[in-house]
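I am writing to request your help with a piece of structural work I have in hand. What I wish to show you is a protein chain and, alongside it, a tokenised description of its three-dimensional fold. Could you please explain, in whatever detail you think fit, how the structure tokens follow from the sequence? You will find the record immediately after this paragraph.
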Amino acid sequence: MGVVGTVESGPSSSSVDAISASASRNQLEHQGVSGAFAPLTENMPSEAGLAFLSRLTQNAKAREHFLSPLGAEVAVDLTDGLRISLEMGRTLHLRPSGNAPEFRVYVEATNEAEAQNLLNRALKMVKIGLANN
């Protein structure tokens, strides 16, 4: 499965075809937050993404296990996917695309390096989760 990513100053090291996240980036910069975005691509069936997201949403133990290398959950918001506030002001937002065979991963952190680090770790966990679904 291919990975595509964009972070503040440019694409992540694992990116194939950078995706622009400039609108989100501009909104985050006004809030003093750095962000990153990456869809997992290559004909990712919507059903697989929805099943994975449903498991994380409905099963607190599965979510805790998924988050263990990323940080402790502070709050959960189910608007437009699964948005998890993590400790130290970081955010992880997971959602299947509504118009493409993609599963999207968005992160927010206090600086670009932390956002990139969280994105890389989150992508790894999402790939594992989707493979095991």
The first helix runs from residue 22 to 30. The helical segments are 22-30, 46-58, 60-67, 112-131. The chain has a mean pLDDT of 73.
